[in-house]
Amino acid sequence: MSDSDSEEGPDRQLKLVVLGDGTCGKTSLATRFAQETFGKQYKQTIGLDFFLKRIILPGNLNVTLQVWDVGGQTIGGKMLDKYIYGAQGILLVYDITNCQSFENLEDWYNVVKKVTEESETQPLVALVGNKIDLEHMRTVKVDKHQRFCQENNFSSHFVSAKTGDSVFLCFQRIAADILGIKLNKAEMEQSQHGSVYNLCGSGQENCITSSKMAK
């Protein structure tokens, strides 16, 4: 084995855009993933929040995820096309206790299709039901979620930004799917409840930053 065989390959970088109505938990989802925190007070995202996080996928592949958290009020805005352009992954997020946030994803997805229709490579689209800690208040039935996924070839995810349940797994699976990497059951179970330390490294290796961009 040569020295080069044991060297780490170059970092891959993926752009993930998080879309959906206001109050469905997009920012909470992004901050839970990138910073492992949860803010109890709702604060509307104006324009765009931007997060970076480095993860390690099987095969010792370093992947830097750019998470673009798009404000819920931007669906009719001029900048939305620019936010979506060039994304390798789209997360359509809704609140499982809010039927309207689910119904409105059709509008968000129509914008995605319009922006990406002439792209050589289509982004992977993930349907993300948030707030599973409020399962007792669920109004969007699971079969409705699954049917929307099947009709549009979305990947399917259920998470709780509040508790962290399955948040890291959601982003890990999306990144792996984009790169064509298979995750085994043990790897998925390890990240099911947000235990990201073994997979992400520690300290500065996580490359966590956040910045805001106005409209």
From TrEMBL:
Top-rank EC class of the record's enzyme: hydrolase
GO molecular-function terms, A-Z: G protein activity; GTP binding; metal ion binding
Reactions mediated catalytically: GTP + H2O = GDP + phosphate + H(+)
Cellular component terms (Gene Ontology): nucleus; plasma membrane
Keyword annotations: Acetylation, Cell membrane, Cell projection, Cytoplasm, Cytoskeleton, GTP-binding, Hydrolase, Lipoprotein, Magnesium, Membrane, Metal-binding, Methylation, Nucleotide-binding, Nucleus, Phosphoprotein, Prenylation
Required cofactor names: Mg(2+)
Entry keyword annotation includes Transferase: no
SUPFAM superfamilies: P-loop containing nucleoside triphosphate hydrolases
The keyword Glycoprotein is assigned to this record: no
Superkingdom per UniProt: Eukaryota
A Pfam family assignment: Ras
Compartments in which it is found: Cell membrane; Cytoplasm, Cytoskeleton, Cilium basal body; Nucleus
Membrane topology: Lipid-anchor
EC number(s) from the headed UniProt entry: 3.6.5.2
Role, per record: The small GTPases Rab are key regulators of intracellular membrane trafficking, from the formation of transport vesicles to their fusion with membranes. Rabs cycle between an inactive GDP-bound form and an active GTP-bound form that is able to recruit to membranes different sets of downstream effectors directly responsible for vesicle formation, movement, tethering and fusion. RAB28 is required for shedding and phagocytosis of cone cell outer segments (OS) discs in the retina. Also participates in nuclear factor kappa-B p65/RELA nuclear transport in endothelial cells.
NCBIfam families documented for this protein: small_GTP
PANTHER family with a match to the protein in the record: PTHR47978
Family assignment from sequence similarity: Belongs to the small GTPase superfamily. Rab family.
Official protein name in the record: Ras-related protein Rab-28
Organism: Anas platyrhynchos platyrhynchos (Northern mallard)
